[in-house]
Amino acid sequence: MAVAAYASSVSLTHVLDNVHYRAKFCHFNVDVKRIESIQEGIKSLLEFVELNHKRKGQKIEDLWRKISKINLEVEEFFDLYVVSQLQKVSKGKRSDRRMRAFDKDLDTMIKKIDYIKKELLMVEVVVEEIMEGKQSKASVPSVHSSKAASSIAKKNIVGLDEHVVNIKGELARYDDNLQIIPIVGMAGIGKTTLAKVVYDDKYVVERFDMRIWLTISQEYSVNEILLGLINDGIVERHSGYFDGPGEVLHKKLYGRRYLIVMDDIWTLQAWYDLRRFFPDNVNGSRIIITTRLSHVAASLSSHDPYSMTFLDKNTSWNLFCKVVFGEETCSHPELEKIGRAIVRNCRGLPLQITVIGGLLAKSSFEKDFWKSVAENVSSFGNSSDGDHCLNILLLSYDNLPIHLKPCFLYMRNFREDAEIDVTHLIRLWVDEGFIKINGDKILEELGEEYLKDLVNRNLIFVREHTSCKEEMLTCGIHDLLRDLCISISKKENYLCSPRVQVVKAEYRRCFQCGSFIRADERIDDSVFVFPSTSHGNPPFCGSCRRTYSHIKDLRLVKVVHNKVSGCDSLVQHTKLRSVCILMFEPPKFISPSTLILLWNLQSLLFTESRVVILPPEIWMLPQLRVIECKCVVFPKPPVVHGEETKLFMLKNLQSLTVAKNFVLTELILDGIPNLKQLEIEYEKHMGRLDTSLCNVARLQKLEVLHVADTLQNIGFPSSLKELVLKRCAIPWSCMSIVGSLPNLETLYLWLTAKGSEWDPTEGEFLRLKVLAIWGSDLAQWRADQHHYPALEILILFSLRSLEEIPSGIGDIPALREIHLRNCSKSAMDSAYRILEEQQSVGNDFLKINVYGDSKDEDTDEDDEPQVEDETDE
Description:
The structure is a single chain. It is built from 26 helices and 29 strands. It is of the alpha/beta class. Among the domains are: 2-136; 143-307, Rossmann fold (3-Layer(aba) Sandwich), CATH 3.40.50.300; 313-389; 401-491, Arc Repressor Mutant, subunit A (Orthogonal Bundle); 497-609, no CATH class. Strands 10, 13, 14, 15, 16, 17, 18, 19, 20, 22, 25, 27, 28 and 29 form a 14-stranded parallel sheet that branches. A six-stranded mixed sheet has the order 1-3-4-5-2-6, with helices on both faces. Helix 20 (422-432) crosses helix 21 (443-456). The two termini are 34 Å apart.
């Protein structure tokens, strides 16, 4: 319940910020001081949850429920009020000035929050007393001596042979100094099993004078760990040592070659607390540390941590057979096909293979039972025989800071084995209200930090990187961890109101997720009540009906005309944060527009529509962060003066793609001051008109700029990191303007650069990593390693006149790839010469990829060169 309390509190802070912003500029007749009082109250509740979220007990669980309840109540209260006021505005009426009843309700909300705050103070006193009692009874860690570790039953070690050889090599490596060897990977991946196999290896036993195995719990006592190490695993609370236990351990290890395994470390502090007691005897002593946390492993050693990965298909099958049949082959051929399906669904996780294999080993080997297991791998893996499987994973979840838990649990919403776009995932976290405001950082940056933290904790894995390996493109979650998310969400009753909606035009599509509703499913649902509309109850699929059965009230508004299905199914609810409309026909907004009733909207996506004409009311959505479409016509802001201009400012807008015929007046640019990504294109008749592209330089936070089909001069802000120019007709002699951008890392030029000669100037393009040129008359290119010192990838496409790639390009230290397609034969020959020259001096990292020939392959002018990104799984 703590997660629900935290998530609802963070989400509510965003809603209250929106109300406060509107009230501050007299958009509503609300007492700003009362709003600020509620904000302070919710902030206090949030701080309490952050400090006490790990506490257990009935009283504090009741508090979590009360906090969640008051958060939902406050959000509903403001949604009802704001929507009613905006309805008046949209109909041309003045907002309601009779505010006594509303102020009275506000005071009631403040009193309810204050009452809960008083309860928090009482609980804090109880918590302090409990913590004092806990400190007097330090927890006893799990400590095993060499004898104890050896007595543990041997595990199945299929697939570990190569790992064992590598770790033994580290133990025997010629370096007498004390070395730390971190082994890192997700729960259940086999870290502890590998460490135990190495620990008990005959060579290791003979090599080291002393071996000590120690398992660190999340809550540990340094003194008791030390006493256990001294006394061969036996903790003597009253040992009577004159010196401290640390000094005694140091003396015991001094002068001896020792191996210590510290299993399952959760924090660097655990290592810092113990490391000073391990002497460096300069005799080849070693310490192996296992951890689930990549950042902990990386900080423990000067060498790269040893990473454990998922088992491949063959190794997974061999392990399964070993567990089930006692040998690495299937002794029941009639079960092999089913068995392989079971293994495939375990996704290479040794723990799950072992748990399910153990269950099947105890079965009667009946085909029907094995089929049922294959169809329900997850549930069998979490059955009573496999409870320890989820319990091991649960430790990783329990160790998460509270701000990461809602984001992790959200992973349950993706299908099994999904390849999840990283930008989309972070956007969803932001839209759901999971990201807490922190200083000047934008929410997307914080979301990226959250994702990296979950990856470092091995709870989410990276599927695909950019070719430069610097950014994640797609990610995934193991099915067993996804099952954990589902299990915890149900247990903690963590189900938010629906914030994200996918709208599809066809009839019998679910109002919430956009999926087809089966013919046998009812499309009416009496759970929902929509007091402010006459649209009737929208269709819900069975899954969404079950998920959101706790929702009693949603105010619906019809925003877009739906001529396709002939029904009013394209409706949204007023608490919506993100809407993705999938319609091939251009959607038309209701006139007068009711878009402003979606007053907390953050993402507006039209992924299929060719052209979308946005209504002027778009400027009245200050929370809006993303507008995405294949082609969107953006309206001019209303002409207002003074403080009222801030009411018509998209102060949070981060991304606008793709804007059609966008005239960048000062008024528009002042309304989107924090834009980070802008994609704009112009029709032919607009190409020669003054579209004020020189004003783009005013967007001082812009990092990504794509411009297509213009002959106007473009102003480039110094903040740019990525620049894409299509059919913009810029002579090579003017490219120095682009080269002088201090932060530019990626430059794509499509049918843009004009002229036959390019003479770049030294000191330009200092941070450029990717350069792509497509379709140019370039013949002579004079450059060397000093002109693009950071270049990693060079893409040349349809340069039929290019005589050669400058040989000095090959001497750029960072250069890894050169791609050519449909270029002149002399250019291709020069690429191979560069490769030969680099190989002759020992450069084996450079790769050359050549596609097609200008003489025998035609090129579609709309084609763009595609460079496959490297994939890590």
